Amino acid sequence: MIFTETKIPGCFVIDPEPRRDERGFFARLYCPDEFAAAGIPFVLTQGNLSRNDKAFTLRGLHFQDPPFAEAKLVQVARGAILDVAVDLRPDSPSFRQWTGVELTADNARQFYIPEGCAHGFLTLTVGTDVIYGMGSKYIPGHARGYRYDDPAFGIDWPHEPASISAADLAWPAFVK
To answer: Quick one: fold of 2-169?
Structure first.
């Protein structure tokens, strides 16, 4: 695996190193030893699937509040997304900044989002399946979020959402 840190400290794009043959390829997607060697303290605790039928479906911006903060390892199994992380850590040099990466079934990339960052994505194709590896399990009552279009973050989404939940539209604005 090739780990590339983004402008947000602790956020990594992870590219597979496929071993190809006449059948296709095989690639390692998670190895705790390789993550640790890259300085990523991630242990897979829970796995989730997000199926999205429509193009331009937006989910987010989501996080869990401490002490239940969660890291995420995101990958697309079918389709494509723009995956976004927003740094919510007040002591971080990239506080309130965002970074995004296009994840597709074809590029097999992963995006690691550390604790203390909000996460959201916009599907770019019809029929997109997103797999989440979670560093903490979901704890009812501790889910939080901010609006996807909050001017405090200035995320440059490539398209207006065609589908977004009422719950995601109801998240508050970020206030420092």
So the answer is: Jelly Rolls (2.60.120)
